From TrEMBL:
The keyword Transferase applies. It comes from Streptantibioticus rubrisoli. This is GNAT family N-acetyltransferase. InterPro entries: Acyl_CoA_acyltransferase, Bact_Acetyltransf, GNAT_dom. Keywords: Acyltransferase, Transferase. PROSITE patterns: GNAT (PS51186). Its EC number is 2.3.1.-.
Length: 161
């Protein structure tokens, strides 16, 4: 069964946001110990959220968010200096959906939405253990390792669309 047969990925509307937040709480808050006030931030109100739901039961399985424009420049002033860069963030796949290809499908969905918005680059801050995953998808790491506030080491990555 393909990822598309298992999951539906779409831009989340107001009613679907709880599903996005539930996946993020499961992955980042419960599993990784990120404080909820760090994980769910004020930028969520200005983001484009993507939600992957199971085709079988409609349950949330994965999510990602996109920041761009003035909001992205405000949150990432050293990395985003133009209006053509999307910031891929809060990529999370629930435990039951891991290993299915859903993570890569979510990244590609973010890229498709960025293109639809007229953006030409994607920037992200990857947990260092996830660097090979993003590299397989065409992202290049740069700069030193850093802590973006969660206590988990990260590296900056970029890809031209």
């Amino acid at each position: 069964m393909t990822v598309a047969q298992r999951y539906r990925i779409a831009v989340a509307g107001e009613r679907e946001l709880d599903g996005c937040y539930a996946v993020r709480r499961e992955v980042f808050v419960t599993e990784q110990g990120v404080p909820e006030h760090v994980e769910l931030d004020a930028y969520d109100a200005h983001a484009v959220h993507l939600l992957a739901t199971s085709q079988c039961d409609g349950r949330p399985a994965g999510t990602a968010r996109i920041l761009y424009g003035a909001v992205a420049r405000r949150k990432y002033p050293r990395a985003v200096t133009d209006d053509l860069t999307a910031v891929l963030g809060r990529l999370a796949v629930g435990r039951s959906a891991r290993g299915t290809g859903l993570g890569a499908a979510l990244v590609r969905a973010v890229e498709d939405e960025a293109r639809r918005l007229g953006l030409t680059h994607v920037y992200l801050e990857a947990q260092t253990h996830a660097l090979p995953f993003y590299e397989r998808l065409g992202y290049a790491a740069y700069g030193p390792e850093f802590d973006e506030g969660s206590g988990i080491p990260h590296r900056a990555m970029r890809r031209t669309l």
